Amino acid sequence: MSDPAVSERRIRPIQDAVAGTNWKQALQLCDKWSKKGEKSDRFLALKAFVLVNQPDKSQHDRGQAEVLELCKRNPPITDPEAIYQMQDALKSLSLNEEEGPKLWERAVIAKQNDKDLYIRWLNQAIADDNWLSAQKATMGLRKSFPKERNYEFWNILMCLLIHMQHDLPEKDRMLFGTLAYRMISKATETIPLGQEQALSSGKAISTPEEISLLAQVLNYTGRAEETVRLLRGESLNMTSRIGKQDPQLVLSLLLESLNMSEQWSEALSVCQELLAKAEFQSDDRIWNLWLKAQSRCSDDEFHSQSPPLLDSLCNVKPIIRGPYLAKMAFLRARKNDGNLDALLRTCKEYSEAFALKAFCFDDLKESLRQLDKARFDDFMKCLSENHENLAELFKLKLSYSSFSSDVRRKDLLDFICRALSLYQGSLSKGPACAEAAILAVMALLRLSQTEDTRQSILFAIIFLQIARSEFEDYYLLNILLVQLQSYLGLLSLAMESFVKLSVKNMQWETVGHLILTRISSLHPSSTGHGENAFEPLKVVDTGLTVLENAENALVRGIREGLRFSSYSNIYNSIRMRSDIERSVNRQVYAIEERKLRRLLGQSDETILPACPSTIVDSRDVSYLPNYAENDSALLASFRRGPLPKEDWINTMAIFDNVATHLKADLTSQVSLAPKTMENIRTAQLRVDASSEGLAAQLTLAELSNLASHQILAEAVMAKERPGQQDKLAVLLEDLKSWLSARLTERKSQPPGSIVAGIRVPDWEDLHTSLTQLETLQVVAMLVASLGKRAKMAKPKAVSISKETLAEIHTLVSDLEQQIHSDARDIKEQINAPGVLTRLVDLGMAREGDVANSELESLLEKLCDEVTMETICGRLKESWEDALDGVLAVKVKWFK
């Protein structure tokens, strides 16, 4: 037997070499210590891992044989560290899912009383998201340590998680669901009756968290009615000995179970019992279930009881929000003149009580939208004559919400003046009304659509930058700046605004997409200095790392949940982890990272991970302004193209794998070729299956480029197959046609768009230029790869004439030069004499769509001429910076 201290000393330098991916040195060290007689399990596992990662096929095959031999060895490996190393080796061979759990099973058979080994197995199964393996571990703990009551509940939980795994055969799911039900039922039957703690079976339910596990098992095995019966029973209700330890958890479980059971009469009865008590009258969970049950229940008795219940609770003093919100929702669902009159009265009462509260308008807006014009006007007349800032802000919101889709330009300009007047006045006579600035911006965006021009968008950006000097940390203000600045191609300013949001942790999942969506094709290079520095590649890496760390934290949370028997938190952690694994942002960020690396000339010797079969979209836009019914659609029109989803991910996967394959071919990384070819075929099948819906997720430039990417994919596959020379020749002709068409388009259309009489690069212009340059780089790689094949002159090899390759080379160079020429042309126009003056005049409301004497007067009070020049100067710099990013991307030709 090897001395552990000696083995550790020998293993450490091998691990260091592996950490530095120096596989050759690692193998030399393995051979050295192997000759010296080192035979510890950790060493043998590490040596096998090093061998399977060798580029040489014979050594790789030798490593695979050693790994499989160690898996089947008798006596089995029982050292946990050696098992971990073996699992790493199995992952390199794509065998861990099948063989990894068997290592632990064989180890615990050899050491049945080793609790640490069981716990390590369980922890590894949780990390691998393998609930079948985890259930075997908990079953082993339960059998080997029968006096530990927690292991019984751990096993029940694992059976439930297997039942909830929809990718397993239905027969297996039902089997484990039944097992979980039987075990939890036994734990329920042995609960002692009465209020005193009894010396009952140690496996009886005795904590609220175990009640939570009971509810989950019953609800997710289709027995929610039984859950309701138990949670209303003497042993487990909120006032029972167990329930009163955490009555809020028991209440949540009861409400959830009533909803899942669809016992609407029972739900109404429970809700009305609870609402009779003052401590529950503000609980939104109860009111939400009450409203849902009201809409589904057919019992007339309950319907007749509803209006008196609402009226009585709305008369409680001081006023409670919950009953009023429920009453408005109740009346909205029953549209007739009588209910509309009642809805109007309720809105009046509510606004009288809460008009000065920030939440008042949001609470009322759905109800006010239901009122006809006469009733809405009646509501407006009833507003108090209070002219305090917050009262005026409330009236402004109401005015904005009443705009029709064909609102007149004059009405919008009048509203903008009112909003800016309130904003300007509030700066000296508080309280400050920063939200008035947001209302003015929303009206400006509406104005831009009525005029079909971008001048008012630019004016909105300038005004938001003025407002930010007063309210630097106002979240909504910075959010709008990020969206509008990036929309008009002011990417460096948008990045600066994004930095001010201080996005942290899971905000990368909900908010990060505002700047990272398509960042590679808008501004791939770094910008700013110090606190305002923004490196797109680093920021994308941060977004990915945060999501990976969140997943690891959730794994720790699941383990800690088991340790402290916190079953309600475990289920939430598992669901959240599953969402992160299948996150659309995670896929988009990974694609953007690889695009950025290619554009910046950085090597990436990995393959894009396959997209999950189902993805989860956690991108949030609920924080954006939403005063009128169509505000969501209004703001969506100022995005940088459609939101990427599964179809976008699959189309990008085609191009990414083509680029990876060609780069590997040119740098002799032959091991990557088979996997990239398989990925190209898979992505193509997925795109072909959803071709009709691509326009909803891809920009015009991406749709245009997709045609060339599909040609490139077919060409890559054709060049690898014998007898495909004719097909390859046709594909290259198609590629030439695509390149010629793009070149003609560019020569026939002026670049950029006109804003305030100035030609500037908007997001679409930058995006089109950078995506075309990215495509040209891969076309150049294909030309080099085909040229390399021609030089090798192997028999039966697919080869193409030098003339065809030269023609494609010329077209690529011409299109690249035209893209750069367009960028230089726009840059010259931005720097032309008089541009700064025109921007300042627009910002001061002297020119353009927003030219207005009242507005000009307000702007003069908010911003002096020097400050305005500084703001407008930075606009010019940002556009120049974006164009420099286009000019910095050059097609590299491989020799």
UniProtKB/TrEMBL annotation:
<protein>
    <recommendedName>
        <fullName>Cytoskeleton organization protein</fullName>
    </recommendedName>
</protein>
<dbReference type="Pfam" id="PF09797">
    <property type="entry name" value="NatB_MDM20"/>
</dbReference>
<dbReference type="InterPro" id="IPR019183">
    <property type="entry name" value="NAA25_NatB_aux_su"/>
</dbReference>
<comment type="similarity">
    <text>Belongs to the MDM20/NAA25 family.</text>
</comment>
<dbReference type="GO" id="GO:0031416">
    <property type="term" value="C:NatB complex"/>
</dbReference>
